[in-house]
Amino acid sequence: MQVSVIGCGDAFGSGGRFNTCFLLHHGEERALIDCGASSLVALKKQGIDPDTIGTVTITHLHGDHFGGLVFFLREATLMKRRKRALLLAGPEGFVDRLKTAMETFFPGGWIDAPPFGLTLIEYEGEKELVLGPLTVKPFRVRHACGAPPYALRITFGGRTVAYTGDTEWVETLCDLGADADLFICEAYFFSRPINKHLSYETVAARLIDIKPKRLLLTHLNEDMLHRLADVLHDVAEDGMVIDLN
Ligand SMILES: [Zn+2]
Ligand SMILES: [Zn+2]
Predict the structure, then answer these.
(1) 3, 51, 102, 171: which has the fewest Cβ within 10 Å?
(2) What is the pLDDT of residues 75-91, one digit of tens each?
């Protein structure tokens, strides 16, 4: 399995980075974790055809993590090129929020049954789900966004990727990232303790309890970007490809 960083920015495009989106690919199957507002642009900048993506799994309902689905779906339904069925999954309340966002940006744009086949799924708490080629285990985290926020542990192509989404520290992150082939972890600030988000120093101090095989820091704000010389772990960059095979 390969992981491509489509976007590793925060909500404000700090450092010119695109909003959150990671592409998982294995064989003919492609899936996204999160699809932030700028993700359709970011996919095309990296030469990735959105019509080849069969599954999108969303951590939480902030625009920098799910807002890009509006443009992704708008293109798929309007341009009529898409042949592959599409499965979209997100937290409880996801379907209503997606329809509302779609109708806000493109009135009349929501289509219940597009010809390519659209399946919409909402998580059921922390119950493990099979979503297309992915096995997804949601972990409830702490990050106010008008719906339950989750971190996701995903098994695909014989490898495991864990992603925190946005959250302040919660002990469940130790189970989320344990022994993961790749642990993608928010590091919004360098050291400042803040509600709703993780700092690098918090993550670095607890890494011994998480024990992932590999760590990749993401969702950096300007403060973190100015402290990169002090960061001892791998930091995501848009366009980065990680081969987990
Ligand atoms: Zn975010
Ligand atoms: Zn958020």
Answers:
(1) 171
(2) 999 998 999 999 999 99
Q: Where are the alpha helices (DSSP H) in the chain?
A: 39-45, 63-66, 68-79, 94-105, 172-177, 200-210, 222-225
**Alpha helix ranges (H) inside 3-62:** 39-45
**pLDDT tens digit string along 151-160?**
999 999 999 9
Domain-located, residue 61? yes
Ligand 1 centroid vs 59 CA: distance in angstroms?
10
Total count of domains within the chain:
1
Nearest ligand to the C-alpha of residue 34?
1
Quick: pLDDT tens for 213-235: 999 999 999 999 999 999 999 99
Number of residues that this document lists for the chain: 245
- pTM of the predicted model over 0.90: yes
Q: 56-84 as b/e, with b when 16 or more CB fall inside 10 Å? A: bbbbbbbebbbbbbbbbbbbbbeeeebee
| pLDDT tier at 195, thresholds 50, 70, 90 | confident
Using the mean position of ligand 1's atoms as its centre, give its distance from the Cα of residue 196 in Å: 10
**Separation between Cα atoms, residue 180 and residue 187, nearest integer Å:** 18
Domain ranges, residue 171: 2-233
Classify residue 22: in a domain, yes or no. Answer: yes
Both tokens assigned to 36: 């932030």
